Each structure stands twice: as structure tokens, then as C-alpha cells.
């Protein structure tokens, strides 16, 4: 909020406030070619919530089905009462309002909650919208000098989404809780909650669990020729008929011949450097390599963002714009930080190739990247988990602007007794991006040289074995696989991925086994099977949420009105 300039303030000062109120910062700035006094205060997420009228709060006041049509109200919450009063008090002396919330639909909706509150006190107040990508001086200065107007359609879309979530959640939570408590009074004591996002997640977890239960183990056999430490596999690889495998094995054993190297093929293999980092990829990498669940990772990333070390961590974007200044960032790392200076120098001296851009760009945020360089002392003083996540983010940033890794795939074919065996080896030529990213990649390289075999060479096998194996069932769903499914089917958003998975656990629909795999509880299995029995399988599949998301986009684009979508 700002008012016309009255007196010179310190560059930044705290304004006196009441106990339990949010901090208020004051400073002066030139805006619209005038000096202005600026007052900045914060809100903690949404100020308002949707609810049914008070007389329908009792579960016995109406049937669950009636909740689809009963009126809902949007009201300021009791927990935000002090913030509401604080904003109303401060806006009285202000001439303008600038919204600095996140530049996405949820941020726009929170912004309009503030706008409506301020306009109720001061109807003619000027309103502007600041768009910024990270908490840096440059980004903030750019935002204050390129103010825009808020986008009401985005806010209306979120209002519709919140109302739909309330209605569907309330209807089915009441319906299934009352039903199950009546049928299983001893087992079901708490609410059996329903959510548009958590139910497809439960469906994914249950489907994988049932798939494992249906899996039929099969035996198969392999013939392996050993020479020193090398394993050559029969060209057919796996035999599912033991008699056929035994036949080939006997022929080879009885021939008592030397193996002859018939062919050597060399193929250039390139391991692609990663695309710029977005939220889904950050969560997947953190789960796989740091053993951190999504909820923990997002809390850490948010803290790194707040203290100005990384850009905004909730983003779909995996593509840098053409004017992104890589050189400026790399130079700062060379000069200030001994841990990452060599990585930065390697990138800079290699003339910085274009990043391996992905296909996603949400027009509101950059990919996640390190925004500022910190000294060695400041870096080692970070909490351990924050240091690990920061290390992942900075190495990922360096990796996406280095060249692809290069290796040679060498395929060696040998013949013994008329039967062919092969061995494959991967020989590293140049690490390139892997020189900074090896700890976050699984590319398996055998050795730097493998020249022990020549065409026409004969050798006596160390031994030849017939080995019995069996097929393995698929593993339980892990966090990386679940994130892929959610992303593929449009379940949740960059802001809700972590929270949605945690809710499934908190509501006793699934457990997180060994901090690695999701396994459904009896309640989770029972819910999915119950809806399947009454032919309402859409409630455990992504289709319902995908349909809702489609109409939310239509509102943002002005194709549909909120009233049309709610009908």
C-alpha cells in the first residue's frame, strides 16, 4: 500500500504494531514519477474460506445430497481476524494498493480477497499487480516499475474450484462416514473423508497393490558363458522352457570347443543432460537420491526461497527464456564460493551452451534455480537437509547448461558350438554434465577401457552355467512413480502434490512403508472396492478431477462463466 510522500523515512523501518499483528515495513519509493510512502505487510495464505450456512453444519440437518444445491458463503476466517483488522486500519490512509502474491491462480485469488477487503474501506483506491519470479533486488525492482492489473477471471476460477471441492467433499464425506459407521460401528469411529485429489491417489496405490496380488511367478532359465570376470549371455537371453534351454546347454558343453570372437560393434551413446528443474522433478530427485518425502522437500525449498537462495519452488516450467543471464550468475559463483567455483568456471569456460529446455512454460515462473551466491561460511551454516536440497538445485542448474555425457557401447559376439553369446560394455569418453551431476544420475559405465577382445580371437571359457531364475512381481508404488502418475493425469498442482500425498497417509488410506513405498490400509482398499461395487469407479480415477481442471481453465480464458461451470 502507498500514500503520497509526506516525510522522509529510513530506507527500511518497522512500523509500530499491536501484539500478535504481522510485521509492517515502511520505506519510500518513486512510483508514477512521485515519491511515495510505502507500507508493506503480509498475509498467511487465504484470508477467506467457503462454508455452508451455519444451520447446515449439523450432519443431521439435511441429506448429504442436498449439499449440492444449498447456498455457500465466502467469509473471512476467525484465524485471520487480526490480519483483516490490520489491513482495514492501514488502508485508510493509503492512496493505492499493490498485490505481491504469487503469480498464479491461487495467488490471484488471495490477491482479490485483499482487494475486496481494502475496497470495502476505500472504494476508489488504485489497485495494481506486481509480477516477480524470485526474491532478488533485480526482480523486485523490475516488478515495481512494470506494474499490471490483477486478473479477475483467475480469481473467479479458484472460487469455483474451492466451491466445487467443498460441495463434493462435504457430500461424499458425510455420505460414506454415516454409511460406514452404521455398517461397522466398532471399526469406524472417525470421519471417512473424501477429496477430489486424494481419491485418485488412493486408486493408483490400490491398483498397484492389487496388481502385485494377481502376479503369477514364472520360472525361466539363462545360459551364461564366463570368461575371467566377463559374463556373455546366450543370444536368446531368457528361456521359458527348461527342455529347450537344456538342449542348447548340452550342445555347448559337449562341443568342448573354444569360443571365437565373431564380431565387435561400437556405438556412440549420449546421455542427455537434464532439463531445467521444475517442482515435480525436484520432488522426484529428492525422494530418489536424498530419501526426503515430498512434504519435507517443499518445506525446505520454501525456506531456501524465503532467504533468497533459490527462485520460486512451485513451478511447472522446465524451460529458460532466451534472455536469461547465465553468465552473470556463473561469474558470481566463481568469485564468492569455493565449493561451487570450479563447477561455475567449467560452465563459463565452455562458453555456456543453451540449456536443454523442456516443453513446459507456465508464463508466471522460471524453472527452479539458485538465485544468489552465498559465501562458504554462510553455506556450511545451513541446516543439513537444506544444504542437501540446495546442493541438488545448484548442481542441476549447472548440469542443464553443460554438454551431454558421451560413451561408447561395445557389443562383442562370440560363437561356441554354433551358439552365439554377447556381452555389452559401456566405456566412458567424456563425463561433461556428469562431472557435476554424477550423484543424481544412474547412468552405469563399466570402465574407461575394454580392449581385451579382437575379432577372430579364441579363448577357453572359464565355465558355462545353466541358471534358473524366476520373474519378480512389480514393486509397491514409490513416491517417484506416484508423482509421475499424478503429473501424467493432471491430478493436483505444483502447490498441492506434496500435501495431497500426505493427506492420504494422514486420513489412514495408505501407509508409507520403509519411507519408500505406499501400501493401502484396509480402509483404503475397502473404499476403492466399495465404489467399484456400486459402479462409481470414476471416484478413484483421474477423470473427474481432469474434467474439473478443464472447466477451471475455461473460466480463466473467459470461455465459460463461473455460473455455467457450477451448473
UniProtKB/TrEMBL annotation:
It comes from Aphidius gifuensis (Parasitoid wasp). Belongs to the type IA topoisomerase family. GO terms for biological process: DNA recombination; DNA repair; DNA topological change. This is DNA topoisomerase. The keyword DNA-binding applies. InterPro entries: Topo_IA, Topo_IA_2, Topo_IA_cen, Topo_IA_cen_sub1, Topo_IA_cen_sub2, Topo_IA_cen_sub3, Topo_IA_core_domain, Topo_IA_DNA-bd_dom. Residues 151-567 form the Topo IA-type catalytic domain. The lineage of its organism: Eukaryota, Metazoa, Ecdysozoa, Arthropoda, Hexapoda. Gene3D superfamilies: 3.40.50.140, Topoisomerase I, domain 2, Topoisomerase I, domain 3, Topoisomerase I, domain 4. The keyword rRNA-binding does not apply. Residues 1-133 form the Toprim domain.
